[in-house]
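Q: Could you fold this chain for me?
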Amino acid sequence: MGNNLSILNKSTVYSEDVKIVALIGPKGCGKTSLVRRLTRDSLHQTSRNPVSSTRRVTHTEINLRGIRIVVLDTPGIGYLGNCKEFSERDVLDLVESWLRKHRRNARLTGILYVQNTDRRVMPTIDSFREICESNDFYSSVVLVATGNLDKLRELETGIWSEVLSRGAKVFPFTGTKESAEKAVALQTSGLRPGRRFYRATAQ
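A: Sure. Below is the predicted structure, expressed as structure tokens.
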């Protein structure tokens, strides 16, 4: 998969044929680490402390399997910046503002909701429905698990169960570039809603 990804530096207004995917999730869940794997950024090491380093929407344009994709990294929900805690609505407003400047139809292709398995936080994504292209909102959502993937089943049968029953997909992010590419590729693969994706772990 590595040969199918290239970093593009052009900033422009994106047409409907470009896929735009937003990384959403609690602070310190691993959104920025996933982007760094996509861009081969080994110059910055992610802190072990669960504190978000993203304070605004940043975007990375890639070409994956011949498809142009823009990945938006967002501040973590619950991140404390400028003396205020970022809420789901605050992050939504930032993404919507970015879309108005860079997207003709001001809509997202889909959402990668990133969550560390050790931090049991209910996915807060319903309000993003209003800025997603698909009429079937949850089919455009991928729940990306980071951290201890042995605990993934607990999330699926617990706080993720309702979102999964509505058609969201699951992907375990293992921290590699290949895994990051696969997570993003789910938004453009056309796979049916509700399908789970697992990678075997070493015993």
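A (continued): Confidence is low (pLDDT under 50) at residues 1-10, 42-53, 191-203.
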